[in-house]
Write a structure and sequence with these properties.
alpha+beta; 17 helices; 9% strand; five-stranded mixed beta sheet; Cytochrome p450; binds protoporphyrin IX containing FE
Amino acid sequence: MTNPLPTLEELAREEEPWAGYARLRDEAPIYRPPAWDRTFVLSRYDDVRAVLADSVTFSSSMSPNVTPAMMVHRDGEPHDRLRRVMAAAFTPRAIEVLAPGIERVAASSLDALIERGGGDLVPAWCQAIPVSAIAEILSVPPERQPDLRRWALDLLSVFFAQPEPGEQAAPFGRRTWVQAECAVRICAAMGPRLGGELLGLIFRGAKQRGAALTPRRLDGCRGLVEFVAFLNGIVRQQRRAPRGNVLDMLIEAMEPGEDGVSQASEVEILLQGLALIVAGVDTTATFLGNGVRVLCERPELYAELRANPDSIDAFASEVLRLWSPVQWTDRRATRAVEIHGQTIPTNAQLKLFIGAANRDPDQYEAADELRLDRGETGDLSFAVGPHACIGRNLALLEGRRAFRILLARTSGIHLEERPQRTLHPGTYGFEELRVKLERA
Ligand code: HEM
């Protein structure tokens, strides 16, 4: 009897899911995971790339006939309009301004750890760097920065909900109570029109992804209301006193132009501000953590990079390709379509395994090996097509500068215990990285 193929749950849990990915690519290039209704998994490079590039046949919105709140879940004109606004704020020049702050936080938080001989790098370094970058972008003052990660997790639980088979909604009474409490709070902060609109979007967020309003997601809605009200306060202040940062450009997009029409509504901008914390914090922190783990486990690579810092950019690219923070993303088929002889019905869900595509031996020679001389790899870590990551330049800047600082300021780095993979579905990273650090 042949071995059954790994389930999605196993692939999301295993520390080394790569052999499982190879089996999907070889034996089931269109895989129907058990217990997942109308779900198809694609794992080959060419297939994943082609679907990402075709946003007409493969929608980013999981429910037909609604315009989702988040840009990443929208299609067509409503997506492109917001993307133009956001892209203008994320040009390489706008991002370069953030470099000195990134270097300062990377160096000072590392020095504090070295002083103590080491510690858990995840909160103290991997998260501290992107949190400070996003805080700068959104003008979040230092005392509220610790809240950013909590809000990011709230956002993940609501707008990026990954529905699980058999999950249960919180009891009706509790849902009503939390919704009423949130309504009072958000309307007091932003008035009934704006507050009401945002409240509706937040409470419908999980449902649009086909997920139930579980107790965790209900708490997530509460956190998001708190954040949106907070960000709205910052926007009001900054309207009066611009700070010359990315947020100014987003605020400008809310103002009516010469034709009396704004490029994006206040609601849209506040929600995209929210999206930046989730898109920009955990992904980048995970990327940094994955790089640190490799450096701990491969002392010869650590020594080579210390001796030859010019290879650090190539190292960062290979870390992203081999251990992509986003392992899979979702699309919905807008019509019946045939792939590898199988019909994917209209409205079926596709899980695009970026992590498997990036290790496809038909695309990469010695695909599982980290090679510093690959040059441009064309990997899919930041996706391609209309939704390709808008923060790519920022994430690369953070990774390259942070690894450079780590390698320059330490002469040894050792894991104190075996790290555990995080259990956020669709991601690859580590919960904690307890390390001993030697000062250079
Ligand atoms: C290593 C870090 C990062 C990785 C691996 C990553 C990965 C991705 C991927 C795979 C997508 C496409 C999702 C899809 O189409 O389903 C995406 C989209 C996006 N990312 Fe990133 N990202 C990273 C960092 C960032 C940062 C730092 C920001 C901003 C501060 C950001 C903002 C966005 C936005 C706004 C989108 C939506 C683009 C659109 O829908 O047009 N990301 N990212």
